[in-house]
Specification:
The protein is an all-alpha fold. The protein has one domain (8-91). It has helices spanning 9-29, 32-53, 60-91. α1 packs antiparallel against α2 (32-53), α1 packs across α3 (60-91) and α2 (32-53) packs across α3 (60-91).
Length: 95
């Protein structure tokens, strides 16, 4: 559980609220196939991002917004890397 790194119950509550807010926003803006295919995995990734940023944000609204930006930025980087790996696999000679 990513929240185990937070010691103060107030910080845990703030992180939980930010996660719920951020995930709701991501679900509203993400394509349905994205949520269906990788929903739980992506929510867990968001939780890790939220916890990592928890001590830097002003409040849960700020934390949610920062986490959403990082979620999309890092997700796009991962997707690009996976796409690049897929392209490389197609270029490799087959045994």
């Amino acid at each position: 559980m990513p929240y185990s790194t937070l010691n103060d119950p107030v910080d845990v509550a703030r992180a939980c609220a930010a996660l719920d807010r951020a995930w709701a926003e991501i679900r509203r803006s993400a394509p349905a196939h994205f949520i269906c295919a990788r929903g739980m995995q992506e929510r867990e990734r968001l939780a890790v991002i939220v916890v990592g940023l928890a001590m830097t944000a002003i409040d849960e609204t700020d934390l949610a917004q920062i986490a959403i930006r990082k979620f999309w930025r890092t997700g796009l980087a991962v997707d690009a890397m996976e796409s690049s790996l897929d392209d490389d696999r197609h270029l490799s000679p087959r045994p």
